[in-house]
Amino acid sequence: MPLKILVGAQWGDEGKGRIVDLLAASADIVARYNGGDNAGHTVTVGARTFKLHLIPSGIIQPGTTAVIGNGMVINPASLFKEIDMLAAAGIPVGPNRLRLSYAAHIITPAHLALDVAQERVRGQGQFGTTGRGIGPAYTDKASREGLRLQDMLDLQAFEQKMHLHIQSSNHVLQALYSAEPVDEDAVVGEYVDFARKLTPYIGDTAAMLKTALANGQQVLTEGAQGTLLDIDFGTYPFVTSSSPTAPGALVGLGLGICPVEQVIGVTKSFQTRVGSGPFPTEVQGTAAVKLRGTGSNPWDEFGTTTGRPRRVGWLDMVLLRYAVQINGLTDLVVTKMDVLSGLEKLRLCVAYQAGGQRYFDLPLGPADLSPFEPVYEDFPGWDSSLGEVRAWEDLPQAARTYLLRIEELAGVPIRLVSVGPERAQVVEIADGTCCG
Question: Catalytic pick from 41, 53, 105, 165?
Answer without folding.
Answer: 41
